[in-house]
Amino acid sequence: MSGDRPRPSPHILMKTIIQFFILAFFLIPILCFGASSLPKESLVPGGIAILKIPGKVKSVPTGYFQQHRLMILNIKNHWEAIVGIPLAAKAGIHYISITEGKKTFQLAFKIQSKKYPAEYITLKHKKYVMPKKEFLEALKKQQKIIQHCFMHWRDEKIINMHFKMPVDGRISSRFGFQRYYNGEKRSQHRGIDIAASHGVYVRAPGNGIVINTGKYYFTGKTVFIDHGQNLITVYAHLHKILVHKNQVIKRGQIIGTIGRTGRATGPHLHWGVSLNNTRVDPMLFL
Ligand SMILES: [Zn+2]
User: What's the pLDDT tens digit per position in 145-175?
Assistant: First the structure.
């Protein structure tokens, strides 16, 4: 037999073409404007819990964990609460509170313990281990500004949390390390350090709005980006800041250059990520 295949009737052909266009009509906006995407879950201090809110998608629920408002996103037609877990959280069962319309209920999740390694850093400038008395007042003011940035809430429906590394380089210090400066115990590392050459561009890992830029005692020249629903990222020790407050920025856009301003032993980027005013491991977003 020769390869005489039956030809599709014009009717079926038309149907297929219409189906294709209907599919494209729905798919193209998703591909162009994106849908929300989630970070990786990690149920440890400094990690993230992702909790499915039962029930149908009706009114937008609000959620709280330890007095901090939670990010809640519509993922494939149901609500998910994305919860930053504090480094100080104790292992065991914890609850978030959800309010939907008139009803309020709790959702439980379990945090496992995690021991982070110690890291010993030697600083040449003692002022970064113990700031002089005359700086303490100014430092307190700076701390307030920084705290305020991490509390910033902005409504946003679609948030893509599949971030792009803000700079190419070697990760020189990881999140959560217990730090000792010249032998003195300080707080755990609340971000990751990426070593790169002086002057290399630092790029926004996702879409957002610049909520603050400034020069601070410990973090040096710093940029804060708000990605919506209290997801805030911070870029510290920059040499140059190339964005300004209230600037709308796109994923991949240049925001500054690598430097060593503030408490830094060499040129690197300190990259921090905060959710519900809780510093979490940036690696969960990559
Ligand atoms: Zn750092």
Answer: 999 999 999 999 999 999 999 999 999 999 9
Kindly state whether residue 1 falls inside one of the protein's structural domains: no
Between the CA of residue 115 and those of 36, 45, 50, 193, 254, what are the distances in Å?
Answer: 31, 9, 22, 19, 35
- Cα 194 to ligand 1 centre (Å): 8
Whole-prediction pTM value? 0.86
The residues, any chain, with a CB within 8 Å of residue 107's CB and separated by 6 or more, are 51, 53, 81, 95, 96, 98
Q: How far is the CA of 253 from the centre of ligand 1 (A)?
A: 22
Residue 208 included in any domain? yes
191 CA distance to ligand 1 middle (Å): 6
User: Which CATH number belongs to the domain containing residue 97 in this structure?
Assistant: 2.60.40.1590
Same domain, 164 and 271: yes
